[in-house]
Amino acid sequence: MTMDSLKIPPVALGTWAWGDSGRTGDGYFGSPMTRADLEEVADKAHAAGFTLWDTAMVYGMGRSETVLGEVLKRYARSDYQLSTKFTPQAAGAGDDPVADMLEQSLARLGTDYIDLYWIHNPADVARWTPCLIPLLKSGKVLHVGVSNHNLREIELADRILGEAGFRVEAVQNHYSLVYRGSEDAGILDYCRKQGIPFFAYMVLEQGTLSGRYNPENALPEGSNRAEAYNGMLPRLKALTDRLASIGSKHGAAAPDVATAWAVAKGATPIIGITRPGYIDGLVRAGTMTLAGSDIAELEALADAAGVNTRGWWEREM
Question: Residue 161 phi/psi, 5° resolution?
Fold first, then answer.
């Protein structure tokens, strides 16, 4: 199995926030979105050539997959790619929880195959990884990856899959200017040497690095991300100000630069999109070339901020 038929774009589209109910306080992001809003987002993304959509069963406990499946009905299945996940912590009690969760995802997404299926968290690599093999053989899953795994766990998953003639074909971890654990742990180098695409989620730290928020204009009260990030905003201001100033030199904005930084580091960013205008930024980020001095300065400012944005579900890499 190879990644040849899975087109790896400069940027993938994240739908974690699509799992919110739209009511403040009921969802991680506090992002009210209507079906019409999301159809407009999808149409603009489709027109710009962004075709890889990333979701998971646990994003809103099925809401993200359901909404995404409904929105994508307007396109031929061959015109887009789906990335979703098996989350061990949400596994059922059946004989094959991985196959069961996949079937539920297929139904919600309105498809009979997933382009890229992930083991979401490494609760028990030796137990769950073999369950991917029959799914690959059946054609219901075309490619497999691992998310939130450390280097030892990635290598173990790859050995297990290799015994059946498959391999780990992608890695997805939290990676941003202020959270570079996968780089420090050698995972980016490993992926580069093995020819494995590395997907980075939370590149914008749930909007905190977008430049939109600051101590005077905090994240939406009542959302989980406000609780996680609002206290960090004063320490991040120098970084977000510099992201904005570099962006102005490129006719771009702060989030475009943060995204372009991840691309420059060899990652495929997964950027959450909730507004059509965000697509313009992804286009800019995909074509922007940052100077080495800018990259070094941004990383130094990120280090100086001294924040820890590791999610509650994550372990140190």
Answer: -65, -35
